[in-house]
Design a protein that fits this description.
Rossmann fold, GMP Synthetase, Chain A, domain 3, alpha/beta, five-stranded mixed beta sheet, 2 domains, 15 helices
Length: 483
Amino acid sequence: MDTIPAAVEDAARRFGDAEALVDGPVRMSWRELHEQVLGAAEVFVDGGIKPGDRVAICAPNTHHWVLMALGALTAGATLVPVNTRFTATETADILDRTHAKALVVADEFLGRDRLAELRAGGHTVPELVLPISPDQPWRALEKSTVDVAVSPDDVSDILFTAGTTGRSKGAMSAHRQVVDVARAWAERGEVTAEDRYLVINPFFHSFGYKAGIVVCLLTGATIVPQAVYDAAQAARLVRDERISVMPGAPTIFQTMLDLPDVNLKSLRLAVTGAAVVPVALVERMQAEFGTVLTAYGMTEAVVATMCTPGDDARTVATTCGRPAAGFELRIGAKDEILLRGPNVMLGYLDDPEATGRAVDAAGWLHTGDVGRVDERGYLTITDRLKDMYICGGFNVYPAEVEQALARMPGVADSAVVGVPDDRLGEVGRAFVVRREPGLSTEDVVGYCKGVLANYKVPRQVEFLDELPRNAAGKVLKFQLRER
């Protein structure tokens, strides 16, 4: 079972009439899901899609995405998830670069008609376009017997990097890699068929698709998607659907825990990462529901390290755990984190030069992240290599400053970047989201002086209503630098 279509078929055989997918009024067993996926595959085959063709999908987290994506893969196609927040120009760029033969697109979502925008902008769209309505259930008209040979080494998907520093790159993965990393994630989180999994992370991101949908295929956990994150709605889903597994960025858990009379008792596993995680938040999460794990990954490797159940709050908050999914880990020059193993991406789409820069001749993926490994083999992310700045000759890692600010009363969120300074070369500018309206620059600077060395203390503070983030929850620091 080293391909995604095989995992769908196996789930139908193993879990049968157990609930596979819950999306509002739509409820499906694993057997029904398999039938619907075969029906979706037939739609693609009848539309002229052949093995190896690229199928793009631009839609929110609904049952449509699950069925159409798995249907495309079952038809032998390569899946190209598209960020639903992309503009028409950005979407057209992905379609052009992948030579997509089909586009599955939500007809209207978040007040936008993406297909109409593409056509109005004069962009070329694939010949096969399958509009879907997030508000209307999708069902295959009849059973199908589509049987396309899919190999474990076939390219399953092309996921584009978050593009936090420039133009995104398409990272290619094979079926065997997707299945392998999902299996490792499921094993580390002890996910079983008894679990019900609320998938808040976007399906167009590896965390929602590979550590979400595919994890459920392998374990029999029920998939419960949420199209747009809303804390109150998520809390209701946790209560009403007895959700037991829920990954997400730290801010998601913070906003839910801050709701009045919230009941998250059914949760047994929360997985977080992608940002600084305050120890106090992990302690509160552990007290409120159960196991909390942090993980480290990226589009090019999906899940590289992960904590284990039983790790204490400080370990969970300050490390990303130990290597998973067959990865080797070492710290290279300038303390850069290097990864090697069978699940490193196949390469970047049509970009051998970028691939060569990312993966060296010995097979090590250069992550661009800075970190250290303790005596237990647990990884701590210090920062992004590019985010480090030098203040008065001293290296400053913004993540350390952000960790300090996370403990400050009155601070809901923060991000720190280095900005030019005539005297010191660079100094820190802190972008702060206030929890208390009266919080001032003097308050922030004064607090930092009490807990940080002088060269680490931000010299400038700017207050924002929210920080700009990508779909993975990572702060878009290049946007902050541009300010």
